Amino acid sequence: MIQLTSKLSSYLVQVKNITVQLQQRFILQNISLSVQRGQIVTLIGPNGAGKTTLVRVILGLIKPKSGEIDWHHPICIGYMPQRLTLDPILPLTVMRFLTLNNEKYKADISKILAEVGVVDKQQALLSTLSGGEMQRVLLARALIRRPDLLVLDEPIQGVDVVGQYELYELINRLAEQRHCGVLMVSHDLHLVMAATDHVICLNQHICCEGSPDTISQHPAYQNLFDSRAARDLAVYQHHHHCAEHSLSLPTDTAK
Ligand SMILES: Nc1ncnc2c1ncn2[C@@H]1O[C@H](COP(=O)(O)OP(=O)(O)OP(=O)(O)O)[C@@H](O)[C@H]1O
């Protein structure tokens, strides 16, 4: 039996034992997870593991075949999609794009663009933005309605290595300053380890989960990501309560 309920709890969202079947195929089985305020939870897993499907379940867009989802009530979820396909000839400025459906928040938009580091791009056409600038604009869009929960589907794709670290630092800072929860999908193991509180390795089911330093030693994690690749990846941690976040670039990627 499916139950989609909204009730008061210490969690922003709590997924209990859900199973998803699409076109006669099991895509997700027995998945449980939760996200609290100030917490960053990251889903990692190979292509086709079901990460985006799980995100869509949490957004309420896909109904699981069985299991239960509780959302904190009330909850506002800010979503940053994996990609946004726009017609490049559309003469849409960043400001216009961000005010679409968000007229009542117009006065906040400059401040949010400053928060994500692209305030100088307000009047730029979307088609002229670099990959990293576009990701920041999409992040700004997810922040406009002051969400309790930010859901970010591969937020750093198309961004160079230095830009990736900066974006993860920004996400950490936002989670702390806004005291929102973050559920993030990522392929980038190095960076995931640096920027998250709780990692969930997904491959239709949850293979393993835990804090970044414990998960990197887990046999299921090593199997999932090839033991050599997993072993070679150093663990970088962030600390929520440091006055300054510092994610140093690993020497092998800081090229
Ligand atoms: N609407 C759908 N109908 C049928 N199968 C689907 C549907 N949506 C996704 N799938 C299948 O579900 C599986 C998981 O897809 P999903 O996009 O969730 O994976 P993912 O982990 O996000 O992958 P990637 O890392 O490549 O983005 C895939 O095999 C995909 O083909």
UniProtKB/TrEMBL annotation:
PROSITE patterns per record: ABC_TRANSPORTER_1 (PS00211), ABC_TRANSPORTER_2 (PS50893)
UniProt domain ABC transporter: residue ranges: 13-228
GO biological process: response to zinc ion; zinc ion transport
Keyword annotations of the record: ATP-binding, Cell membrane, Ion transport, Membrane, Nucleotide-binding, Translocase, Transport, Zinc, Zinc transport
Pfam families per record: ABC_tran
SUPFAM superfamilies on file: P-loop containing nucleoside triphosphate hydrolases
Source organism superkingdom: Bacteria
GO molecular function, one term: ATP binding
PANTHER family cross-referenced by the UniProt entry: METAL TRANSPORT SYSTEM ATP-BINDING PROTEIN TM_0124-RELATED (PTHR42734), ZINC IMPORT ATP-BINDING PROTEIN ZNUC (PTHR42734:SF9)
Protein name: Zinc ABC transporter ATP-binding protein ZnuC
Source organism per UniProt: Thioflexithrix psekupsensis
Higher taxonomy: Bacteria, Pseudomonadati, Pseudomonadota, Gammaproteobacteria, Thiotrichales
